[in-house]
Amino acid sequence: MTVSVAIIGTGPAGFYTADALIKKGLDCTIDLIDRLPTPYGLIRFGVAPDHQTTKKVSRAFEKTALADHCRFFGNVEVGRDISLPELREMYDAVVLAVGAGHDRHAGVPGEDKKGVIGSAAFVGWYNAHPDLRHLNPDLNSKSVAVIGNGNVAIDIARVLVKTREEMADSDLPEYAAAAIEAAPITDVYMLGRRGPIEAKFTNVELREMGELKNAVPLVDPAQLPDEVGALDNPRDQRLKEKNLATLKEFTRFKSSDAPKHVHFSFYANPVEILGGEHVEGIRLEKTHVVDGRATGTGEFFEIECGLVIPAVGYRSLPVADVPFDEKQAIVVHKDGRVVPGVYAVGWVKRGPSGVISTNRPDGAMAADHIAADCGEGGKPGRVALTKCLAERGVRVVTFEDWKLIESAEVAAAPASAPRRKFETVPEMLAVLGA
Length: 434
Ligand SMILES: Cc1cc2nc3c(=O)[nH]c(=O)nc-3n(C[C@H](O)[C@H](O)[C@H](O)COP(=O)(O)OP(=O)(O)OC[C@H]3O[C@@H](n4cnc5c(N)ncnc54)[C@H](O)[C@@H]3O)c2cc1C
Known about the structure:
By secondary structure, the chain is an alpha/beta fold. It contains 15 helices and 18 strands. The protein has helices spanning about 10-25, 40-45, 50-55, 60-65, 85-90, 120-125, 150-160, 175-180, 205-210, 235-250, 345-350, 360-375, 380-390, 400-410, 425-430; strands spanning about 5-10, 30-35, 70-75, 95, 100-105, 145, 185-190, 215-220, 260-265, 270-275, 280-290, 295-305, 305-310, 315, 325, 330, 335-340, 340-345. α1 packs across α12. The chain binds flavin-adenine dinucleotide. The site of flavin-adenine dinucleotide (FAD) has 35 residues, from α1 and α7.
């Protein structure tokens, strides 16, 4: 008998799970289901369009998708085309790998004003996510405030100040390239409640900010400590020391060096987003950090800006028919076991932290649980799913179909760009004659 496994979501966590099941040698079939016709989750729709080397990890996932055990069921949304209880009936094991694709709120008064756009939405827009292609953010502002001191905040700042030429090797969609090029943006403020030591940037991303054609990073030397101080974790220590050295190097830049500026504003806690219906600025309280926590000093200042992008984290939405922890915005689980026959991996299990490879151990753990829990299996899996979706008239996108979509994107790529992404699902399906 064969164990039938359905994996919902084909981002890194879904693929690492499939890979772990195959490497374990389990006699199984693995069906990889995604609501979009495109695999790879945030590798396609999160990782910055000018970081193509990072996106190449999808080549390894392609090998997994093409393994005998696996089938891709793209354009199949669980909750719309089929329910989780139905999948549980059909499969011996169902793995939730649906990620955390939505914005966490920053909790700042005024966040509901026009011109406040969360990073998940903004990043989805400049990455041509079909749900966000029509976001149409108003970029008609000289200044932009990005709330957050992590890599997502840095990605956003960089994409906003890079020139069209600098983005030529990227897969930034033309509508976003044109909107950014036409925008009068000269100053991007990256606002961190805490200091440079607490910032979550990785060093490669930070250093990149000092290598831009038309923009310079601006850092106030008074905000930089002489030393990092002793940290418990040696890896953290090395990273923070590198970051501090990079920030110190950045203090040589002056605003007259380039027409655009990225301001690293530390010790600045947003307390209110200002304006009427539309954002006109942001009010901040200066802080100092005690034992890693930011405390207000009672001193306030304001930055005039027409766009505020909170980049303070992502959240999962509740998954129907399984318990959900609203506070942490993850499914309730014990070491990845959710309810009998259902497992969770990746961001819907752990929350939005870490890099692509951080999701790998989740896949290995889920594969171990499935091997331990499912015996010889016996549920019909793929046969039942295929029949059900055909009866419901769902246009399943196979992996071969995806490769046709991908080839059409590559063929349409301008000059040195790797691809020109389709921006809507109907456009993708049209390639398939659907
Ligand atoms: C803006 C941004 C930039 C990043 N840049 C980097 C980087 O440069 N380097 C790096 O190592 N890491 C980066 N990361 C982190 C990395 O992308 C994540 O660690 C990883 O994608 C999380 O994997 P996941 O599989 O849990 O979720 P996801 O990648 O989000 O995948 C979830 C998948 O589930 C699908 N899905 C959701 N709901 C359903 C449903 N109901 N039915 C069917 N399918 C569904 C989605 O379509 C999606 O394909 C970045 C993250 C973000 C947000």
